[in-house]
Fold these 2 entries.
Entry 1:
Amino acid sequence: MKKPNIVILGAGYGGMITATRLTKQIGHDANITLVNKHDYHYQTTWLHEPAAGTLSPERTRMPINSVLDLNKIKFVKDEVQEIKREEKKVVLSNGELEYDYLVVGLGSEAETFGVPGVHEHAFSKWTVNGAREVKEHIEYMFAKYNNSPEKKDELLTVIVAGAGFTGIEFIGELSERVPELCAHYDIPREKVKLYVIEAAPTALPGFDPELVEYAMNLLESRGVEFKINCPIKEVTETGVSLANGDEIKASTIVWATGVRGSSIIEKSGFEAMRGRVKVEPDLRAPGHEDIFIIGDCALLINEEINRPYPPTAQIAMQMAEVCASNIKSLMTGGSLKTFTPDIKGTVASLGGKEAIGVVGSRKLFGTSANFMKKMIDNRYLFLLGGPGLVLKRGKNPM
Ligand code: FAD
Ligand code: NAD
């Protein structure tokens, strides 16, 4: 009997966990292929650190062949261009793959909400090279400041668009690093301006107000200025224009106003909302018995509040477990599981030894939240590669 072809697109949180679980559960009973545009896996959830320069980018990525057993799974380094659903084929930049079962875990892209100038003038790619670009650019601006006779203030101005978790975690790291940058480039601290600009009436909308206040007070004490209730309406070569008519000049604009699912979803003709497919309870795309959509490409409604669950690594990993089990059931004739997220909490770092979070019903601040955040980062490594991977690549929680 012909072995089925299982193709997994994307080696992120969803793709990597699906790959490890399928190789364990199915082994050689199927031809399993993983496609990713790089030959490494990176932990997106760590990227605010290399972007600010507080962690080496090398710490956030690992060669795929160091984690997966390539005797049990074929790895293809290529870029997905389109999924041809009717033909059960995936078009890559350098070829095509046929599938019997497909797992789409291609992650997300920046959401601009139509604000002009974002792609041209802001940094919006939360990838390893995107993080490198931000770090190098900020350092170059600091170096340029002292070398230019005009000493333009905007060279030392950084704007973060969006006070969601990504924006807050990035500014937390950067505000911790600024004193070191100032010492290194001989710049008075008061010359550096850090803005976080948020459209909603509060930073971290929907999060616990006491924790939001803690985070804002801490970041303000490090010199961060918040502009709340202030939608950005345009990004230009020289800075941003706000809906209230103000303009702020800045040479560095970091875009963090949320995400939409991979553009491959819409390009491939799936019905989607902001690039995310509203998946069936078993994680398959509606009308497609052979296609699973997981992670940031999947949309799942939280029935309690009738709103989508936020796209998170936590949910991507949980989806991957159910997806792998459901593919096995399809192969062996078992019944398919319904996916129900088990939200354990949310913890966000604020740079240095600071963080905030809610775990279960407990609120965490400061060093205890920071400890928890590092444990969460290490837990993922444990789920992916066991204790060996934690020892090799984990974070010191203290
Ligand atoms: P990803 O992990 O993004 O992986 C997608 C993979 O697909 C990547 O390897 C990419 O290279 C590859 N790919 C993309 N397009 C193509 C293509 N066309 N061809 C081939 N390969 C392709 N969530 C949490 O739960 N907790 C956190 O603490 C947290 N912190 C975050 C911090 C930051 C700075 C950011 C930006 C996000 C954070 N998130 C966090 C959200 C989390 O990172 C995402 O929800 C998660 O990465 C989604 O997993 P995924 O598997 O869907 O996609
Ligand atoms: P987000 O959607 O959570 O936040 C984006 C923010 O940008 C919102 O507050 C929104 O009001 C604001 N915004 C939108 N348009 C704007 C505009 N024109 N001008 C100014 N502000 C504007 O997105 P995110 O922070 O990028 O996070 C993406 C996903 O990743 C979320 O699901 C988040 O929960 C997850 N994440 C989690 C963590 C964590 O758990 N520690 C960290 C980072 C990201």
Note: Residues 113, 115, 161-167, 169, 197-200, 205, 231-232, 256-259, 310-312, 346-348 surround nicotinamide-adenine-dinucleotide (ligand 2) (CB under 6 Å).
Entry 2:
Amino acid sequence: MAGHDRASGILRAVLAVLLGAIVVGCSPRGGQAGSRSGPDWNVLRERMVRQQIETRGVKDPEVLTAMRSVPRHRFVPEDYREASYQDSPLPIGESQTISQPYIVALMSELLEVGPGDKVLEIGTGSGYQAAVLAAMRVEVYTVEIRQGLCERAEAILAELGYDNAHVRCGDGYGGWPEEAPFAGVIVTAAPDRIPEPLIDQLAVGARMVIPLGDFYQQLMVIKKTDDGVEERSVIPVRFVPMTGEIERQGEDTQ
Ligand code: SAH
């Protein structure tokens, strides 16, 4: 009798495991979006917007629509693609990173720009932030200092049809004077002080969104006024350093 009980107990356990496997198999990755043909990016993206961005208070409808439409996974290298819609920054090569989705949305909102406005971005990186602004129907001028990243970003932006994103390879310290003034300037690498030419190229009444500082940085909004600038600090952030001319100037004054 005892042997029979043990045998049927084992049988039940085996059946439970098998059933469990079938249930998990039906609901891909135990409830995660996906299938044998790969993750369902649209489902992951919608979840990203709801759980990471709307709940943290981003409200600008143009920003939310753009975050829902831009295929972030296309800007992330193959090795990290599955993590594209997670709540974190990711490596994009050359020790650089694509920002956390919430930070991209927040910075886009803080610019307070709309369709047809011209925005200058310093630090193209993967091209994702530029694509989000382009999806907001903004005319984007973006500068990247690293040739490899610059060419890759330019190619993917063109492939995805963001014709209103213009990429230039070089040091963004000097901005893009031919296209100034800008209705917004967004800097996605951190200098320890504001590059003067970028203030010059900002229209009066427009905002610059910029992470300022060395290790500990503050995300700042700098509004250009008739008689100077108004600054406010938003949240602590962590960006890669802005390199090139601004670093050389820092060394000179040390
Ligand atoms: N906005 C990017 C993330 C930027 S990471 C995205 O959406 O993926 C910061 C980028 O700034 C890096 O690619 C780095 O190479 C670039 N960068 C640093 N200093 C720069 C400078 N002086 N001019 C232009 N780009 C710079």
Note: The radius of gyration is 23 Å.
